[in-house]
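Suppose you are handed a protein chain with no further information: no name, no annotation, nothing but its sequence. What can you learn? This example shows the usual starting point.
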Amino acid sequence: MAYPKRSDELVTVDEYLAGEASSAVRHEFVDGLIYAMAGATEAHIVIAANLTAALTVRAPDASRVFPSDMKVEFRNDEVSRFYYPDVVVACGEHDNARDRRSDPRLIIEVLSPSTERADRSEKFEIYKQLETMGEYVLVDQVRKQVEVFRRANNWQREVYLPDQAIQLESVGVKLTFDEVYRRVDLDQAANDSRAEAEQNVR
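A reasonable first move is to predict its three-dimensional structure. Written in structure tokens, the prediction is:
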């Protein structure tokens, strides 16, 4: 997701959460600044839906699978962040409100030109600090490639290609590329991605 609009006026967490509850547009929150989220391409939406469907069926019963409307919360003495990942899997009970989780076990982001830098850097650094996080997954929307980063492997990058099954050890699920990219037109996805990249540099 992208941030096409920015407010330079700092808001509190309580103000942000109250605003999100009544807003037709989702916003991410970074240390008092809010960023409106733009729409995604068709490929992005389909891939995220495929992942949500597959994980909903095959993740452990104690897990809950959430699409991109669920916020992930991280707060400490220095930073306050609320992000909307494309897919979140959380396990166990929690004491947060029903619109956010601070205990994800697995987070998946579908890469796009407007979000890839943040997904690979600032968001990843925040996600790694969540104690429950076991895996972080980045899915390319223009070619069949999936990257997995695991806490158990010291967050080292593992690349999966179409001849491999994608191992999601944190939830005990194995996915195929056919499942992830079902009904995705990669040629159209590449065209949409180029158009998004061109729009971002204007």
